[in-house]
Prior knowledge:
By secondary structure, the chain is α+β, with helices and mostly antiparallel strands. The protein is built from 9 helices and 6 strands, in the order αββααββααααββαα.
Amino acid sequence: MEDPTSKGYGLMKKAYLLALVASFFCTTGAGKEKAKEVTLKEAIDFALSHSPLIQASKASLDVFEAKLKQIEWLDYPHSSVRFSVSPMPAQRVSSDNLPYTDMSTWGVFLFTEINGVLPLYTFGRISALKKAMKFGAEATKAKADVARQEVIFRIKKGFLALALASESLEVIKEGRDYLDKAKKHLESLEESEDPEFDPVEKMQLRVFDTQVLGRELEAQRGVAMAKNSIKVSMGVAIEEEMGFEAKGLEPIETKKDITLESLVDMATANRAEIVALRTTILAKQAEVSAKKRAFFPTLSLFGGFRYGYSNVAERSYSPYSTLPLNTYSAYGGLVLEGDFEIGKKLGELDEAKASLREMKMQLSELESGVKLEVTKVFYEMQDAKRMVEAYKDAVEAARGWVIAKTDLYENDLCSMNDVVTALVQFFQTRMEYLKAVYDYNVAVYALERAVSESLSWEEE
């Protein structure tokens, strides 16, 4: 895997980003270029390759795969080579074929030794270690799915926040149009010195205009923050110039057969965090098995070769000579090897068992927490859906209220206070409708993340 901190990876990522941004430009008119906004799908595809969360999960998977390779090498021969050079006095042989040392003459001594051990039977210890590493890799893959779902959820939520802020600006613009209409009428009354003109109503408009400005600035800030949030989730620097396509904020159409019971069942079976912890428990069980088998010895095939040479040594053919000079030897056989570190191994086994019990309790707690989370989000989704339907009717009523009061005010049939009250209700109702749609869609996406399955028709 590419190292995210390496220069090569940074250049590749920059080139990918430039290619993505360059593809968002199209020619319109005579020599004019218009930026094409990034869609939700394009943002998700980019994030799944460049998000720091995704890169971190891939790095974790590489760690376990590297450990698995180390374990797999335990089945192969373990060999070593030793080569040494040292000074030595001359070794001579007397006339009666007995060796002696001549300190008046010095030379060099070269010694080479090659040996190897091949495990034949380990009482299942290596197999258990392999199983533990394989389950560990699978658990890491499940954790990578957690990161993937989190990135997708963040980007979807960011696009919803962008749509909410953008449509809020449109609502404010619509409200300003009504406000400007009433303001012009009030100014005409003031200019004509009409007795119906009331300075208090002008003050009310100034106050309300300031309130609208505050909401407008808040919405503009929401647009900027939503865009930055999407960039961060994509793994793009905030300073990068990039536009996003914010579709109209509409309630997501969910599948008809969604029930709380089915959602809880899907979550406990498919939730990535639960799958990862269950697989980690299997890995820990295999580790406990390996700790138990560590008490047994290892049956291995061993062998070796030695060669010694010196330029100041005479070879002795005496059966009592043990000097490895100017000769070679080879050896081999079966070995049953073990140790008596019983206390240490018992401690390691107890530690592994305790860790396994801890993980099982964590799994039970996680399953309960997921059920509670799904239940909470499901009720929030239901409540938001009901509020969407209620506010949808209320928005039309509020719009009609504003239009009616504005027309009445132009004909001097109501006060400015009536118009302001209608505008306030229109703003609040329209904003609450958009917020209800936002809450509902976020709840749907949160449920999809919780159960690791699509619940809407838009992704089918």
